[in-house]
Amino acid sequence: MKLALFDDWRVGVVDSCAHTITDVTEVVPGTHDTDHLGASWWVRMCRDFEMLRRSLERAARDGTARRLGDVRLRAPVLNPGKVIATASNYGEHVAEMREVVLERVAGHVDRWLLDFDVFLKATSSIVGPDDAVVLPAGPEAEGREVHHESELAVVMARGGSGIDAAHALDHVLGYTIGLDMTLRGDGDRSRRKSYDTFTPIGPWLVTADEIADPNKLEVRLQVDGVTRQDAKTADMLVDVAGIIAYTSAIMRLDPGDIILTGAPPGVGQVQAGEVMISEISEIGTMRNPMRAPNVEVTK
Ligand code: MN
User: CA 262, CA 108: separation in Å to the nearest integer?
Assistant: First the structure.
């Protein structure tokens, strides 16, 4: 099932050809609060999805389908407790960053900077699959580069601590595309990756039952029609189950939490006016334009 949020955070099911969307909000339990700040129903729905699946499917079958182009798709995640991101999870990406990182640390090999790990991004950085990424004014004035990182994103259904890798995929609600927009250079990862609009997510969740193996997907990103990233999730150093096990040994995973699984090689700078098109096989495509800073910057 392709599960989407649209317009004022209504729940929709997108048809298999991704032409139409059917509003199924009425079968989601609890008061559907269209003020997204108050919306804990989404997290409950992530937790209880298996119990709701049949009524969602029935509502999708019996409801009135609308053209997908007639709605505004939102990020298919709502008020998640955490956005967890993965560092150094593709060997080729580690290789392409190695010289830059070593130069930055002036030969002091802070080896951990090139090691697999997880970190947190601010949930307020999430935007939808058609939304703009806005360059931050201060760093833009300083000439610092903002890079795209197109990544497979995992959304949790059942949470837990100390989840065993062997059962980790049973905890997954679905998969989507996440852009982990990144300010390059000095500074803690969480700060450099948490600017407003720096986590586009979408276009919808493909529920886990429809993805035979999340470690056999293709991740691509184009900027203005030029392919920058073209990778296979099979090349991840730590696979999806391993990331869930590693993370849940540190912090409890809750329903609705998002895990970005790491940047494939080919990251690069994006500038105002350019358009990023990201695609993952079996999931879909999203299109995010780059915007200049919202405020005037005087140098
Ligand atoms: Mn990343």
Answer: 24
> Cα(247)–Cα(238) distance, rounded to whole angstroms?
11
Q: What is the 3-state secondary structure (H, E, C) of 21-73?
A: EEECHHHCCCCCCCCHHHCCHHHHHHHCHHHHHHHHHHHHHHCCEEEHHHCCE
Spacing, Cα 234 to ligand 1 middle (Å): 16
Instruction: Give distance in angstroms: CA of 191 to centre of ligand 1.
Output: 13
Model confidence over 248-292: pLDDT tens digits?
999 999 999 999 999 999 999 999 999 999 999 999 999 999 999
Ligand 1 centroid to residue 63 C-alpha, Å: 38
**Is 50 exceeded by the pLDDT of residue 299?**
no
C-beta atoms surrounding 169 within 10 Å? 18
> pTM score, two decimals?
0.93
β-bridge pairing 73-74 and 226-232: unpaired
CA end-to-end distance (rounded Å), the chain: 50
Q: Flag whether pLDDT at 297 surpasses 60.
A: no
Which pLDDT does position 214 carry in this prediction? 98
151 CA to centre of ligand 1 in angstroms:
7
* Distance between Cα 276 and ligand 1 center (Å): 16
